[in-house]
Every structure is written in structure tokens, then in C-alpha cells.
Amino acid sequence: MSEPQSALGNPVFEGFATVREIGPIGMITLRATLSAPVLAKALAGVGLALPAQRRILRQGARAAGWMSSDELLILLPHSEVPEVLASLSKALQGEHHLLADISDARAVFRIEGVKAGQVLAKLCPVDLDRLEPGELRRSRAAQVACAFWAEDDGFTLISFRSVAGYVMGLLTHSAQTGSELYSA
Amino acid sequence: MSTRLASGGRLIDRKTTQKFTFNGTWLSGFSGDTLASALLANDQMLVGRSFKYHRPRGILASGPEEPNALVNLGRDDRLEPNQRTTTTPLFDGLQATSQNHWPSLEFDIGVVNNYAARFLPAGFYYKTFIHPRAAWKHLFEPVIRKSAGLGRAPKDRDADRYEQAYAFCDVLVVGGGIAGLQAALSAGRRGDRVILLEQAAHWGGRAPVDGDAVGGMAAGDWLTAALEELHALPNVTLRAACTATGVYDHGYVLAAESLADATPGDGRPRQRLWRIRAGRIVTATGAIERPLSFAGNDIPGVMLAAAMRDYVVNHAVSPGDRTVIVTNNDDAYRTALVLRDAGLAVPVILDARPAPAGPLVEAARARGIRIEAGRAIAKVQGGKRVTGVQICLQAGEGAVLEEISCDAVAMSGGWSPVVHLWSHCGGKLNWDDRLSAFLPDPARPPLNHDGRAMVTPAGAAAGIFEPDAILTSGEVAGADPDSLGEVQDELLARQSVVVPPVWVMPQGARADLRAKMWLDFQNDVKVSDVQLAAREGYESVEHTKRYTTLGMATDQGKLSNINGLAVLAQALGEDIPQVGTTTFRPPYTPVTLGTLAGEARGEIFQPLRRTPVHGWHESHGAYFEPVGLWRRPYCYPRSGESHADAVKREVLNTRAGLGLLDASTLGKIIVKGPDAGRFLDMLYTNMMSTLPVGKCRYGLMCNEQGFLSDDGVVARLDEDTWLCHTTSGGADRIHGWMEDWLQCEWWDWKVYTANLTEHYAQIAVVGPKARALLEKLGGMDVSKEALPFMAWSEGSLAGIPARAFRISFSGELSYEIAVPASQGLAFWEACLAAGAEFGISPYGTEALHVMRAEKGFIMIGDETDGTVTPLDLGLAWAVSKKKADFLGKRGMERNHLSSPDRWQLVGFETLDGSVIPDGAYILAEGSNDNGQRNVQGRVTSTYYSPTLKHGIAMGLLHHGPSRMGEVVEFNKTDGGTVKARVADPVFYDKTGEKQNV
Amino acid sequence: MLTLTCPCCGVTAEETELAPGYEAHLKRFGPGSTDAEFESYMFARKNPKGVHFERWRHAYGCGKWFLAARCTATLEVFGTYPAQTTEPPAAILDAIRARRPDWKA
Fold this sequence. Notes:
The complex is a heterotrimer. Chain A is 20% helix and 35% strand. Chain A has four helices and eleven strands. Chain A is globular and about 55 Å long. By secondary structure, chain B is an alpha+beta fold. Chain B has six domains: 3-113, 2Fe-2S iron-sulphur cluster binding domain, sarcosine oxidase, alpha subunit, N-terminal domain (Ubiquitin-like (UB roll), Roll); 160-287 and 414-499 and 588-600, 3-Layer(bba) Sandwich (FAD/NAD(P)-binding domain), CATH 3.50.50; 291-411, FAD/NAD(P)-binding domain (3-Layer(bba) Sandwich), CATH 3.50.50.60; 501-574, Arc Repressor Mutant, subunit A, CATH 1.10.10; 643-888, Gyrase A, domain 2, CATH 3.30.1360; 900-997, Elongation Factor Tu (Ef-tu), domain 3 (Beta Barrel), CATH 2.40.30. The longest helix of chain B is centred in the N-terminal third of the chain and has 15 residues, at 133-147. Chain C has one domain (3-99): 2-Layer Sandwich (Folate-binding fold), CATH 3.30.2270. The longest helix of chain C has 10 residues, at 90-99. Classes of the chains: A alpha+beta, B alpha+beta, C alpha+beta. Chains in contact: A-B, A-C, B-C. Chain B binds chain C through residues 248-250, 252, 277, 426, 447-451, 704-705, 736, 739-740, 743-745, 747, 884-885, 889-891, 893-894, and chain C through 1-3, 14, 19, 21, 28-33, 35, 38, 41-42, 55, 57, 59, 63-65, 74-77, 83-84, 99.
């Protein structure tokens, strides 16, 4: 088996913020009735808890994000996907649900530095000043769908894999030194 | 002559000289100059030629309303036409050329139009170029096109970068004069999130120039204190050199910020478009001074009175040694005082009012300035610059009482509040008789999402001109907009500013004078043109605008519209409010296309979608074609090979041996749940619930009208899970379609979907040696027995987890292998390496198309166009007759769709072996009422078949299937026709033996 | 460019994050329906100047469809509500009547 490749091979751009493609990162989509008790149990079984509306809850190397009223996104190390999928699938037996490995359908970027938010402010129609702690925001970056959240002095942003080159281009364009929106 | 004064100039830095060129001549100015002030400082009065008559034109204004002084700015990849010199900051190395003249600004052939002016009345083009019809295309249009437009369009790719940014606030204040500053202060002090924008590079608006006390302080001191407090408020953002250009629904405002206009090539974006979402908007946008309509009001040296004092006070530039002032209001007296303070001569103030009075009038009188009441300018003398004025009675017809020599004229016809942003989203206006101006009507504001007022005007933008009243109006607009209407009524009633209407000067001017009174300086529209339009029956201001082109130039009538509609109202014998204004539309000032495009240029013009194998395709010389936003290899030409040759080779190689196709773009949607089968039975025209686990079935989807929408192979993965393949372009649309029905119609059905399109690379291994290759890669049983045609199985191939589908779009033995995208390239390369011994070769979308057409397989988008049913395509076998309902079933039952009298799918073989042109129609007897040939069908897919070695096609033909063997005729683009025999659309391997081995 | 608040995820999204779905509360007519019924379902659309009920999808967001009551003339939004209903809820009707006393459903 060959090593899994991220969409772009992890390029880095240094501007007024640092932009990096990271990954590959494991991702599982889970669609189910989020209030079902069996779901909380299933999540607990893989070390996760149910996030509130529009929140992402990180537990060590894994995280669960609220994507929609019946959809969670589970993030985890790429190699752990089969094991966690199997565990969740077993725990949810008998409950109407959908589980799928979507790791390779996505590209993941980090935008880092004190001005990281200014990069996103050029691309996303989102009031970043009002983004709440731990909020997972789904929106668009210029012409493509994205989801992002603030984490460790920066933002993590997810896009579809096929447009990873476009998103890296957007982030690079927006992080050019000298194009800061605000001084701080 | 215009010159630089020895002292003064609050915005310039005399220590920093900046050199620039105008029409190739090197000139110099100071840091802080605008291009306009620097040109004036160099006695460059003549700066351009007018659009229609090529009349000499000078600088008229000092702000964005400037109609005349437009230049081509920069050169080559930084050339930009129609740039207003009055808002262009001077920088070292700036290059400008004047516009609309040949061969030179000083000597211009086109000025002949000026002497022929009486042959170029309003509507000249409409009246003249009607007949003969044939002359339009070859004579009139080319000539008009050549003479149209002001500046030169740039030919080179723009060298600059642009960007956009989003911002959010509670209160957006537009305008950084004292009204806007006060509004920002009062909203900021309350803790609102405030953004304050100012179009100029400096703050304070007119106050520092006009010199009145503000809040009991000198204007400059008040300004310093206000800015200091605003900068200290963390919830207030100030942005100068940023023009709010439009107000849109729900508090959305676009603003263009200038960043590197004056420092080209410094690496920063040249401009930035702000997309601001504001809780509410305060427009403190000031007012624009109006010209007066007297003969010769366009001669260089005639300037707006306030602009003239701007140049004196801000830039220490004197527009002339002897300036005659002409006015209908007190404000112009400030200019007289400023000129006198600068040591310049003001021979006379001509005041159209019979009895001017008030502090400013008294101040001028006290300084010994001659004031002539009830007087007007009959005519300005001069050609390329003012040499004098003829004075007459305002009440008369223009009989000359006196001539006065002068080299400049400062005019003021009153002030028009800048109501553009108020009006963009539906704010209504009232005519104010005291100010002779349209004012925002606080009772009829543009509305926000909650039904409350979205925009609040303040200061001069609301018709309030006295400093302390402006402060009050700013304070209330910032903090308490609900009480604003009341406060403003009171402020308006209290203020002493009165501007009597003076629309034509003198009021009874003779025709020869009216024909030299400019309303729209940029488009050369005169008082006589609007009056002619009225005589010819134009009553609506919107029609008159288009007929005369009044207000249609790049300045959008900032100076001309009110004067023009007043003249129209007079000519029609109506009141101004009855005639009304034209519609105010964004942008307030022109926005560069680069700014509107923002980042969307070059590589990131649009999101190109790339498969995991894209890089390999690129490095192996693939020729790409767009499929939606995807780029797919069309073919892989080898050195010296044409695309057609490459396609031929790829088809033959695949049919004879082994081909490899990157099919990753195919949509892959998981549908799961206890009701998934029932749901898919509604979605597809055929049965999917009965598909056994482990099997694949081709299915069709229709919209509710019964027309084909998408197709693809469905695989049943387990008891309650199906995998639906869609077309490459249809994945997102079909996923959305599924979610729409599940969320909005059958929300009680237990079904979940997930679009896994991009999680997988899908590689089609095609050809008689396909099985041999997969067996060599190893890992799973791909034998006929273990994996028969239209089955799938899961395992691994070449050590990579894989799902293999035995499906064929080529008619050959074929496997589509889905592997995780992160290992897609590895799998592709493994296939190529292992396939070398079988003569493997990748093939592109064109070979795919040729092979599917040889097999008579339809393609969504080729055989379908949104008006084609499955029955039209001979796909009745895939439309269930058992199902009580499915999407499109009722639509198909409509009599026109179920009629046998439709165009239906057949194949065509050309008699001469040639290829029928794309889009060709099948000719029928006779012609229709329009003299066009009748048709009885059309081609939908047409290719050269390398396998059969002649042209093949599919198409829709009236009663097609019953006409096998008949010869029909297709039109060709060269006017000829091509004959073809109606045939079975399956040209190759009719029994399907090859794919089922 | 309007903004609507998605009742599913709570985000106030701008128009570019939404996909329009036209008139809400249509009744589907399938096989067995008359031509007139099918026409009403497929083609006959209201085009009021005033209160209108519409479908919107939070396409660049949680992906859910929702319904909005809106004035087509002033763009005033009376409220948004989940798509899983065949008629406007009472709270929405109350909000409309509070602002448009003369409005008739």
C-alpha cells in the first residue's frame, strides 16, 4: 500500500500570515439523529463528545464538529479511520445512520499568525469578530465552499480536495505581505 | 494665468517636489497636490477637449464631480483612461495625457464639430443614421465607434493586484466631514461598532477651507480633537481614501479603497473593494456645488466657486489674477474673501439676487469688493481661456451693460446635497424651495431587513449647511436616528441659508446665448438641447436623459442633472418635483474593473477542479477540455500528432488492447437508510429497490416535467445502501436534488445521503486486456465468474483498497476501479507500469465520446438539452411501467410528451463517409413563414469512427425509428448539405458480446 | 444583497451563501392528477408585490433548506422557519400581520 498523499503535497506560504496545506487528515462524516442517546454513547466509545450547534469539540488528536442538525464531522489521524469507522458502525447498529470515510474528499489548511483572521476576512463573508470560541463556521472562500474554526493562534480551514490548488492560491493572494487590512 | 502662490497651502509639502509629465512635458508639483492642482500651478488651464464638440476644457471642480479634467493616466500595463485629475493624488513620475483630441490638445481637428454645432442637435445620431439601412453596418457604425469614447482603452494586461475584503459594523458612516465625524463620535461613544469612510485622503470635508467655527472652536482644532478621540476608540475604524460607491439591500455597502494608486508597483494591491454589511448607514456625504448656466460657462478659467477656494487654501494655487464671482447665494462670497486674502483681485461679484444681504455679503462689502446685485453674466469671453465677461441684468435677455476683463470666473448656483447613497436602495426625495435642492425625505427612507430605516442622512447631505446645525445633525444621526426627522426639520427651518432658483442666466437669454450654456460639460449637452427635447415632445426626465445624453457621462450628471431637469421643467411649464429626478444607481464614482474582479484573475479566476491524477496528465502533455469546472484530458497527443490523430490512436488502442481513463470526476453519492430503496424508486425512472446487493444497474433521472436530467450506474452496496454514479457535471446538482426531496417533501423518510465524489479516484481500465492487467496487479478476484458484467466487488488491487465495478461505457471489457483519492495517482501509475506489456495507453474524453457513440450510448448534455424524454431516446426499457409514481412520470404523461409525433433518436451513417457538422439540422420540404427552411430533426452527437472508418452520428429525427434505411439531408456550415442513411444508433458490437466476457 | 437567518444552524447568511428555491408551500401533483392540478404545481407561480413565502437552501453552510416570509417590494423579512411544514406557522403569520395589517393570506 502506498502512502496517502494530500492534494497539494503540503506547500507553505509565508506572508503577513503563514499558510500551509496540512494533511492528509482523517475525516468521517456521520449522519444520524444527533439527540439519539446511542449516538452520544457511540462517540464516547471513540473518545469524543457531541458538539453543540456550530461547535467543534477537540479531544486529543480527535475532534467532532457540528456540520448540520443531522451531521457531524469527525477529525482524526488518517491511519485511525478504519478502526474508528468500525467502532462507530458497530455502536450504531440498529440506529438509522450513515457513516463514510471522507478523508480524501477534503483538503485542510492552516492559516497562522496574529493577523490570520485578515486572510479569511478577504475571502469569507463572515463576521470574524463575532465568531464564538470553538465555533465551526461553514461558508465560502471566494467561489468555493469551506469550513473553518479558530485554533492555536490561527485558523484551520477545510475545502474540497479538487479545489485545493484554488484555495491555496486564494490564501496566498490574500496573505501577501503589505496587504494587511488592519495594523493589528 | 494660474500659478502657485508664494505661501499657504494647507495640504501641500513644499519641501517635497514631485515631477510628472502632461502630454510628454515634464512639470513639477508638491507632495499633497492633486494632479489638478499641480496642473493649475503650472498654468495648464487647458486640460482636455469635450466629447462632442471638442471644445477646449479646463478644470471645473476640485472633487469627484469633475466633468472636464479627465486624463489617460499611466501607460502600457498601467494605463487607465478617464481618470479625474481632481481626485488623482500627485506622485513622482506620474504620466498623464489629455483625451479626445487629434492631433494635439492645442490644435484639434475635431473642434470643427464646434462650428457645426447647430447641425449636431440633441438626438443627432437617432435622426441621422437611420437611412439607408445598409450604411449602418459598414459606414455609420465604424465611424461612430471610432469617434466614441473619451480616453484610450488599455491594451496590456493590468500589472496591478487587487483584492476584496469583508467588514461588519453596527453603524457605517460615509463621509469624513464634520457631520460624519460627529456621527461616528456619537455612535462610537455608545459602544457601537463603527466604520467611518472618507473618499478623500484627508479628513474634515469643507470645514477647514470654509473657515467657520465648529462647536466654538477653529475648524482645524475641532478636527484634530475629533480625530484623536475617534482613533482612541477601539470600536471605531477610520478609513480615508475609501469611497462608498453603492448601498444595497439589507445594509450592504460596497466601498473602493485606494492603496497604491500613488505608489505604483510597491507590491501592495492597487485598490481594495470593501464589502461592508452595516446595521445601518449614516450618509454624511456633503453637497456638490452647482454651475450656473450662462453662455461660455465651459471656457477654461470658469470654475466652481468652492473649488476655486479649495485650490487657494489647500494647495496655494491661484486659478487667476482677476476673478469675477457670479452667484445666486452667499457661499460664493467666501471665495471672494479667500482670493482677497491671498492678494488676488476680485473686480466684481455678480449676484443674481436683487438684494443680497447677510454676514458674508457684509464682510465682502466691508473689504471694499464691488458687488452688483441683480446682475448676471451675459457671456464669457475667451477661447482656450477666459479673457473677460460681459455683464447684463439677470432679469433681462442679455443686453450687455459692461465688459470686465478677467482671467477667471468663479460661479456658484447653489448646492445639491449628495443623495446618491440615500437613493440607491429606494430612499425618496423632497424638493426644498428654500435651498432649491432635492433633500432626503426622512419619512420615506430605504428600508432594512427589519422594516426600519437603513440610511440616515446628516449634515449637508440632508441640506444642513451651518456648522453647529451640522454637528447636531451628525450627533443625532449617530446616536438616535429615530428622532432624526424631527430634528432635521427644525434645523432646516432655523438655518438662514437660502438659494433662489437661477436656472438660466440671464433668465430670458436669447437663443444664441442658450446654445452656449453648458449643462452637461462632459457629454456636451446645452440648455438649448434640453429645450429642443421638450419641444419635440420629451416629457419624462428619463427619456430626455437618454435622448440628449444629459447625465450619461462618466460623472453621471453630478453637476448637470439638477440644472438639466430644472430647464426641462421650465420648458414643460411644470414644477421641478413633478418632473422628478432620474434614478440614482451605483456606483457613485467609477470603480475600476480590476477592483470589482478582486482576486479573481489568472490562476484563481475561477476554481479549477483537479482530479488526483491531474498533475500526471499535465506532465504527460494532455490537452485539456473544461467539463464544468473540472479540467479533463481531451486526448494525450504524442509529439507531432494532431488531436484527431491522437483520438484515433487512443480509440484503436483501447479497442484492440488496453486503455486507461481517469473517470474520477464522475459523481458518487451514497444513499442509505430503511427508505433508501423507496426513495431511489422515486428518483430514477426505473426500479432500484430490486437491485441485488453486489450488482449494478444503469438508471435515468428526470425532472418533474418528464425531461431527462441525469443518468448513471447505481450499485447496491448492502441491504440499505446504494451508490449512485452521476455525470461529471451533475454530482452537486443531483446531490442537491436528492436533499431537496428528502428535506422538503418526504422529510419523514429515513434516508441519508453523502456526496463522496471527491473521496475517490475512479480509473477505468478498458479493453480486451483489462482483466489481464488487473490480475497482474493482484489482490482480488476479477474473473468473469467472481465479477461478471454489471457486478461490483471490493478488495484491493496493487495493495490499494479498491472497489471494482464491471461496467462499460465503451462496449469493451471494462472495469471502473474506485480507490481513495489520496492513492489515486499511485494506482494510476501502477496500472501504467503493469500495463506496459499489454500496450496500455491513457485515453481522453474525446476517445470516450467516440467509443460511446459507436455503441449508441447517450450522453446527458449531447443527446439531451432539457426538452428530451427517455422515450425520445429509445430508453423506454429504462422507464418503469409498474411503478405508481416517480419524479417525471406525471410530466411524461402530458399529451405533447407522450405523442408519437416527436423527434426520436436514431443513428446516421453518411453516404460519403464524411462527418456531419456539430449542431446540423435535418432538412425537410419547404420553408416556414420566416423564409427559413423547414427541419425535421437535428444531430446530437457526430464523430469520425476510427473503428468503422467513416462518419457516424446520432440525432433526433421526426418518427426516426420507423424510417430505418431512409436517406436524409443535413445542412452544413458552408451552405451545402450532407446525405446520411438512417441507421440503428448501435454501430459497433450490436449484441454486446465484447463487454460481457 | 439580502441576508436571511437559517433556522437550522442559526447563521445569518448573506445571499451568496444561499441558493434560491422559489415559491414555498407548493403541493406536489403526481400521476393521476388532472392537467389543471399538474399545471398549478408545475407552472402557476405567485408573483406578488408584497408578502411572499420562499424556499432557500443554506448551500454554503449547513446545507439545509428553509422557508422565508419576505416582502418582495421592501425586502423586509418577517421570519424564517424550517422547511418541514406545509403551511406558514402561526408565529410567522403574526409577524406579517403586525407589519402588514391589511395583508390577506
